[in-house]
Structures are given as C-alpha cells and as structure tokens.
C-alpha cells in the first residue's frame, strides 16, 4: 500500500469514527488551547509590570526617606522628613562616589491647579535639573525644568498630557499660558509625552515645577521625598547602591546600616517586589494550565485505550489478509499523527485567539508564549502517537489468529 | 502442495492444557477438494488456522509448496496469506465500519493492485456471491449468510491457489448453501485447491476426500469415488 493510500485510509477511519475522533481531538484542543491562553496571560501580566517599572529608567537607584524594608511598594513616604535637598547635593559633590552619573531630587505633594474656570487636583512634583533625564521623561512641546530655574526659584511648570486636557481642553497649545497652582501664578513651559495611563501612579496626570519653588513657594517644607540617582552603567548598580548608602549614613550620623533612616532601592529590588505578586499569579495560572493539559492528555489516553481491543482485532484481521507489520504500524501512526496534529493546530488557533482577545481586553501586552505552544503541542502529540501506535506495535508481535481473538 | 507432519497444538491456559491437535499428518495435492469433518471441539479450526499460516503449531512441520513454513519470515508469511491462500473464517471477521465493497477490496490493497482495478474486481466478486445490491452495506446491516458471502468474496478476490473455508455454509439455508458449494466446486474445477470444514454430510459427500478429526487426531482419511 502506498503512503498516500495509507493517509487516505487514516482520514476515512477518522471520519467513520467521527464521534470518537472528535472527542479525542477535543481533549487535545482544550488542553493546548488552555495552556497557551493561561501561560500567555501570566507572562503578559508579568511583562506589563516589568514594562512599567523599566519605564522608570534602567539604571536608576531610588533613595527614599525612612527605613523601608521592601522599598517602593510601601508607597508614600509622607511623614518622613529625613531626606534633605542637601543630601542630593552632597551625593553629587562627593569625590568618593565614582559610580554615578546623574542625581535628581524630587519633592511631591498633591495640590490644586486652576486655569480659568477649570481646576484639577493632582500630584505636583518639585524637581531638579537632572530629573527629566534620569527618569527618561520626554516632552512633546516646550522644554523641561532646568537647574537654572531651580536655582532661581522660577514659577514655571511642565504639565502631563492629562492635566493639559483637563485644564485647557484638547487641541490647545498651553505653552506660555499662565495657570495658578495653590494660588500662585505659574507659566507653562512644557508638556510631557504620554506614558500611558498604566503605572504606579499616573505619570500623565502630574505637574512638574522647580524643586526649590515647590519647597519654598508652594508647600513650605525643607525636606524632599525622593532622590533619583543613575549609575554609570547597569553593572555598577550594586556598587553605586553601596556607595550611596554609606555616604548617606555618614551624612545622617548613623553608625550602622540598621540605623538608616533612608532606603536605597535599585531597579532590581523594585522589579523583584513587584513581580513577586505577578509571578505567584503566573505560577498559579501555569499550574491550572498544566492540570488542563494533563486532563486533556488523560482524555486522549482513555479514548485510545478503549480502542485497543477493537484495534487489535482489526490488526489481526488485516495481518491475516496479508498486511505486513510495517504497513500496519505506518497506518496507525499516520492515523494518530493526523489526529493529534489537526487537534494540535486547532488548539493553537484557539489558544492564540483567546489570549489575543483577553490581553487586548485587559490592555496587557500580547506576547504569545511560544514555549507553551511548543510544549503543549509536543506533549499532546506524543500522547496521541504513543497511544495510537501502541496497539499496532503490540498486535504486530502476535500471530494473526491471537490478535483476532484478543480481548 | 500441502504437507503436514506430526502436527501438534497445545493450548495452555492458566495451567490447564488443551491438546487441540495430536500428531496430525497428511498431504493434499494440487487441485484436490478436501472436506474436514468432526465433532465440535475436535480441532478442525485449529488445524485450518495453521494451514492458513495464521497460527503456529506447538510441534511438527508444515510444508507449503515445498517450503517449510516454520522457517519463513513474517513478511513472507504475509505474502502467502495475501496471494497463496484465501481464508474464510468461521466467524466471518469483517471490518465492522467498512462497506462490503471495501472489505472485499482489502486483500487487494495489500496485494498492491491499483485502486480502480480493486473496485472492479470487488464488485465482480460480490456479484458472484449474489450481493451486487449490498455493495455499500456495512456488516451490521447484513444477515449472517450475507456476511458469510462477503467473507467468501474477500477470500476469492486474490484468486489464491488454495482456498481454506471454515464452515462456509454454517449459517446459510440449504438453497444458498448449495450455491456456495457449487461455487467452491467450480473453483476446484478451475484448478484451485479447496479445503473446507463442514458439519454438513451432503457437502462432505461432494468432496472427493474426507478427513475426520476426533479429539485432535485424524481418525479417518476417506476418498469418495
Ligand atoms: N485460544 C485457545 N485457547 C485455549 N483453548 C483453545 C483455543 N482455541 C481452541 N481451543 C480449544 O482447542 C480445541 C479445538 O478447538 P477448535 O476451535 O479447533 O475446534 P473445532 O473443531 O473448530 O470446533 P467447532 O466445530 O465447534 O468450530 C477445543 O477444545 C478448544 O476449546
Ligand atoms: Mg471451528
């Protein structure tokens, strides 16, 4: 029998056993589909968190007041007044620190912005000249806050796109316009580029003013909320973190790191904390996916095993009519491969379709998990092939009459 | 053509040994028409399966066309089952999901006959056994006698030199059974060697030679004149 005929015969066998074929294929389809969907979802949410944090800048160190063990996610440092603008200046001026590039300081608080009849209550950040650079914030129009403006305590402001829309409406160039912040008049000098509304704190709904203006004119404080330091390169992160830590201990007159009234956290620390949650989630989803693949696999096995008796008799008969073992094994293998590949492809289609729809709906990055496709297709096909081929192999070892009598 | 020497077959099932055949020896020449008779359980089917190269004896020799079957490779045996021997099973053994036509075509598929020719030949064979109106029926839409006739058509399609039939008329009414028997007689006249198991004395009388098996032994080997 020629291969093409064996192939045709397999198709016709699969067709005549329609219900059984559909059921075994369904096991494969559901198994593969759900593995791909769930793994993609897990990876997508993890990726989205990573993206958000990486958008902060990749070699960024963050110094915050207070001894916060888990860093960033503990959130607001309000009430912590231990970090001063002088600390930032000292870091910048220090001869001992040779691993860092830029130092930026920030004080932020919420307050009211008014333009004409419109007003909005948002976060206003007082920043130094290096701030925009070190945090990778780019502008669509105008210029960023400069160190000069900080030194001179100028009343200028850079607005986030959401704020512009809230105050001026759409299609208005706000540059040069005057708005009131906390009752004081400020000139708009720039608008930041949208980073998307996702983020730990909405970076589009924010206004930037010079740090000293914020401290002295707007809020009347002498401390700052954060110092951002960029390391010279990614490999120096740990060294920079240590140097910063020891310098600040000294500046704050603390003897040991356990007395520290500040926290230096790196990108890695932040990523770790933030991904901890999502990776638990991903593990959970992957677990469920694995279970569904196993269940799918058991379904295939079960259906295949049920057919063993019937098939063994069929094989005995075929052998008694002159089929060679090779032909028989080829036929059964073809049948199994056709079944599992078809089911596998449908499963991939469904999985990719479902993950695309779900990630789009949840506005997560759609990164189809290719390992999951390969893994689940291979596993399901192997199950199908082994259990499709097994009765053929076993029966081909028997005398035809024994196979015919098999029960 | 066919020669068996001291053929024995012992089945052992969980310590219980059944001697289905004991020291069976005989020879069948080309063109003979042999009937094998004997009570139920006497070993007729067992003998037939060995002659059909479907099973192996526990001991003894089976020489087919001068070659010892014991020494043949699996593929060689498959070839013999396909081309040399047509086997009609006592329990028909049709593939349940295939039509009569496809069942009859099966041996030809393994014999490497082109598909078009297969269909033609299978239709012809089914006509010969009187089933031209049942080409598309699957086995469970057929009566016992019809199934038996499909099985006969299947055994004949490769035009084997030897036809082995295990009670081919066991489920047929007398008139149909006579038709089938005349079919075998005709094949025999055309030079095919026919060995047939039967319980029917009339059929046995038509055969030119009758072997009688009792408890796995040949108790008589009679030539009808
Ligand atoms: N697979 C087997 N395992 C064990 N014993 C078997 C097997 N096949 C047949 N036998 C035994 O061998 C003996 C001969 O069986 P066989 O089928 O050859 O009889 P038979 O002459 O064809 O009978 P019948 O006329 O009823 O068809 C019986 O006693 C039977 O029980
Ligand atoms: Mg019998």
Q: Which helices and strands appear, and what pairs or packs with what?
A:
The complex is a heterodimer of chains A (407) and B (225).
Chain A: H1 3-16, H2 18-54, E1 60-65, H3 85-93, E2 100-115, E3 118-127, H4 131-134, E4 139-142, H5 147-151, E5 156-159, H6 161-168, E6 178-181, E7 184-192, E8 206-210, H7 211-219, E9 226-231, H8 237-251, E10 262-266, H9 267-320, H10 325-361, H11 370-396, H12 400-405
Parallel strand pairs in A: 3-8, 5-7
Antiparallel strand pairs in A: 1-9, 1-10, 2-3, 2-6, 2-9, 4-7, 5-8, 6-7
Chain B: E1 2-13, E2 16-28, E3 33-37, H1 44-51, E4 59-64, E5 67-68, H2 74-83, E6 85-88, H3 100-110, H4 115-128, H5 144-156, E7 162-166, H6 174-189, E8 193-197, H7 201-206, E9 209-214, E10 217-223
Parallel strand pairs in B: 3-8, 3-9, 6-7, 7-8
Antiparallel strand pairs in B: 1-2, 1-4, 4-5, 9-10
Helix pairs in contact in B: 3-4, 3-5, 4-5
The structure holds adenosine-5'-triphosphate and magnesium ion.
Based on secondary structure, the structural category of chain B is: alpha/beta
Which small molecules are bound?
A: adenosine-5'-triphosphate, magnesium ion
Instruction: Please name the two chains that share the biggest interface, counting residues whose Cβ lies under 8 Å from a Cβ on the partner chain.
Output: A-B, 22 and 27 residues
pLDDT averaged residue by residue of chain A: 83
Largest sheet of chain A: 6 strands, mixed, barrel
- Percent helix of chain A, as a range, is 55-70%
How would the global form of chain B be characterised? globular
Strand content of chain A: 15-25%
Number of domains of chain A: 2
If you consult CATH, what is the topology of one domain in chain B?
A: Rossmann fold
Give the radius of gyration of chain A.
33 Å
Overall radius of gyration of chain B: 17 Å
**Level-1 CATH class name of one domain in chain B:** Alpha Beta
Strand order of the largest sheet of chain A: 2-3-8-5-7-6
CATH superfamily of one domain in chain B: P-loop containing nucleotide triphosphate hydrolases
Strand tally of chain A is: 10
| CATH architecture field of one domain in chain B | 3-Layer(aba) Sandwich
Summarize the main sheet of chain B: 6 strands, mixed
Strand content of chain B: 25-35%
């Amino acid at each position: 029998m020629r291969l093409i005929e064996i192939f045709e015969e397999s198709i016709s066998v699969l067709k005549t056993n329609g219900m059984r074929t559909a059921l075994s294929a369904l096991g494969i389809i559901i198994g593969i589909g759900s593995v791909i969907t769930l793994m993609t979802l897990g990876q997508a949410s993890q990726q989205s968190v990573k993206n958000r944090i990486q958008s902060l800048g990749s070699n960024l160190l963050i110094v915050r007041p207070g001894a916060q063990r888990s860093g960033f996610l503990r959130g607001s440092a309000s009430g912590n007044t231990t970090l001063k603008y002088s600390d930032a200046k000292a870091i910048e001026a220090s001869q001992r620190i040779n691993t860092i590039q830029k130092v930026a300081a920030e004080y932020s608080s919420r307050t009211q912005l008014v333009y004409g009849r419109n007003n909005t209550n948002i976060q206003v950040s007082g920043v130094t000249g290096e701030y925009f650079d070190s945090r990778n914030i780019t502008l669509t129009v105008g210029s960023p806050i400069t160190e000069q403006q900080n030194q001179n305590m100028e009343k200028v402001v850079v607005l986030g796109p959401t704020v512009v829309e809230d105050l001026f409406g759409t299609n208005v160039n706000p540059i040069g316009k005057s708005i009131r912040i906390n009752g004081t008049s400020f000139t708009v000098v720039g608008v930041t580029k949208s980073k998307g509304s996702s983020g730990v704190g909405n970076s589009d709904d924010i206004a930037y003013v010079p740090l000293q203006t914020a401290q002295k004119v707007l809020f009347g404080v002498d401390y700052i909320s954060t110092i951002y330091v960029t390391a010279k390169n990614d490999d120096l992160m740990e060294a920079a973190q240590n140097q910063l830590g020891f310098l600040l201990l000294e500046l704050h007159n603390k003897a040991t790191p356990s007395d520290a009234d500040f926290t230096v956290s790196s990108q890695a620390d932040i990523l770790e904390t933030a991904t901890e949650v999502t990776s638990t989630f991903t593990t959970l989803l992957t677990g469920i996916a694995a279970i569904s693949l196993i269940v799918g696999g058991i379904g295939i096995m079960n259906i295949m095993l049920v057919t063993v008796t019937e098939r063994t008799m069929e094989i005995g008969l075929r052998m008694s009519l002159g089929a060679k073992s090779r032909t028989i094994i080829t036929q059964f293998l073809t049948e199994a491969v056709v079944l599992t590949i078809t089911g596998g492809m449908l499963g991939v289609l469904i999985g990719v379709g479902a993950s695309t729809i779900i990630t789009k709906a949840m506005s997560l990055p759609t990164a189809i998990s290719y390992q999951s496709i390969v893994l689940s297709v291979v596993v399901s096909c192997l199950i199908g092939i082994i259990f499709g081929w097994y009765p053929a192999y076993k029966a081909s070892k028997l005398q035809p009459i024994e196979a015919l009598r098999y029960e | 053509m066919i020669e068996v020497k001291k053929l024995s077959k012992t089945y052992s099932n969980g310590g219980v040994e059944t001697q289905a055949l004991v020291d069976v020896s005989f020879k069948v020449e080309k063109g003979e028409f042999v009937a094998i008779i004997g009570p139920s359980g006497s070993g007729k089917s067992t003998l037939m399966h060995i002659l059909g190269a479907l099973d192996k004896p526990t001991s003894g020799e089976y020489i087919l066309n001068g070659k010892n079957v014991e020494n043949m490779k699996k593929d060689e045996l498959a070839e013999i089952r396909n081309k040399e021997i047509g086997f009609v099973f006592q329990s028909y053994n049709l593939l349940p999901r295939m039509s009569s036509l496809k069942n009859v075509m099966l041996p030809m598929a393994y014999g490497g006959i082109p598909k078009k020719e297969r269909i033609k030949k299978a239709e012809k064979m089914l006509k010969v056994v009187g089933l031209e109106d049942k080409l598309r029926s699957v086995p469970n839409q057929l009566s016992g006698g019809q199934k038996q006739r499909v099985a006969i058509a299947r055994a004949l399609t490769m035009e084997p030199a030897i036809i082995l039939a295990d009670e081919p008329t066991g489920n047929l009414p007398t008139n149909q059974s006579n038709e089938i028997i005349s079919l075998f007689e005709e094949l025999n006249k055309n030079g095919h060697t026919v060995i047939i198991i039967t319980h029917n004395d009339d059929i046995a009388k038509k055969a030119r030679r009758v072997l009688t098996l009792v408890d796995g032994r040949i108790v008589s080997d009679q030539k009808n004149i």
